[in-house]
Amino acid sequence: MLPEIEQYFRLEKLPHMWCPGCGNGIILHSLVKAIDKLCLDQDRTTMVSGIGCAARASGYLDFDTLHTTHGRALAFATGVKFAKPELNVFVLTGDGDCTAIGGNHFIHAARRNINLTTIVFNNNIYGMTGGQYSPMTPNSCRATTSPYGNLERPFNLTELAIAAGATFVARTTTYHTKQLTDLIIEGHKNKGFSLIEVITHCPTSFGRQNKMGTPADMLKWQRDHGISAMRYENLNPEERADKFIIGVLHKTEAPEYTTEYQKLLEKLG
User: Fold this and answer.
1) How far is residue 3 from each of residues 6, 8, 9, 32, 181, measured CA to CA in Å?
2) Domain span at residue 233?
3) How does 135-157 read in b/e, with b if 16+ C-beta sit within 10 Å?
4) Exposed, middle or buried by CB within 10 Å (0-12, 13-18, 19+), for 256?
5) Comparing C-alpha atoms, which of 117, 65, 52 is closest to residue 88?
């Protein structure tokens, strides 16, 4: 481990429990690199996670951390931000944790524009609990609960966040590590609800069932299918069919909820 990031880990909790080739460690590395570049105070930074493979990330980080109940990471993070608005609060959540049981918390955190940096580890499946399909599993892909292919349409998580009111929305992959670090930095600087969706790979539950090859093959797939908005615009509809845009997708300004709440308290006090 690099000396400059070692300070951010609970070394006694390592090695991690993720499968060989899992992309979650890449996301965790990019997160601590972003925190280091931002020069955030560890004692004023909080990590909140729910349940699932992604949620185990908070246990490896040497900050004040909350490993909460399934789908409730954003609800707990909202409470932290209301009680201590001066804290830097990061939410680490998976696609199932965030968009299924946690879906209602997600849209309302975005609607309120609460100053939280939410990183969604999107591996398109419930990796820890048996490989079931999630609201982010692509149509026709296989899972233990869709052995003949998923019939449901997945959420477009970034469009959902924009429609709900998030003021910073971005997407990248675990292949594009520098971009991931940069997006976390930019998302944290936004004064409002920030979503960074990270397309990551689950070689065990998703990769095997969908014959995606090795973890390296899955990273190459991300490289070849995640493209910039400029490149995407130059493609015809047929070429766009299996591609997705990476980078900043939406950025705007709106009143931040906890700031407005504090103003109300001062007015009433």
Assistant:
1) 5, 10, 11, 12, 18
2) 3-268
3) bbbeeebbbeebeeebeeebbeb
4) buried
5) 117
pLDDT value, residue 236:
94
Per-residue pLDDT of 120-174, as tens digits, reads: 999 999 998 889 999 999 999 999 999 999 999 999 999 999 999 999 999 999 9
Radius of gyration from C-alpha coordinates of the chain: 18
Decide: residue 50, CB within 10 A, 0-12 exposed, 13-18 middle, 19+ buried: buried
How many domains would you assign to the chain?
1
Q: Which CATH number belongs to the domain containing residue 92 in this structure?
A: 3.40.50.970
* pTM across the whole model: 0.96
Query: Which of 5 and 67 is assigned the larger pLDDT?
Result: 67
Convert the pLDDT of each residue in 176-196 to its tens digit: 999 999 999 999 999 999 999
Average pLDDT, the chain: 96
Number of H helices, E strands in the chain: 12, 9
Q: What is the mean pLDDT of residues 62-69?
A: 96
Is the pLDDT confidence value at 107 over 70? Answer: yes
CA atoms of 167 and 24, how far apart (whole Å): 25
Question: Is residue 105 within 8 Å of 114, Cβ to Cβ?
Answer: no
Instruction: Give me the long-range contacts of 219-228 (CB less than 8 A, separation at least 24).
Output: 219/23, 219/174, 219/175, 220/175, 222/173, 222/174, 222/175, 222/176, 223/173, 223/175, 223/176, 226/171, 226/172, 226/173, 226/175, 226/176, 226/199
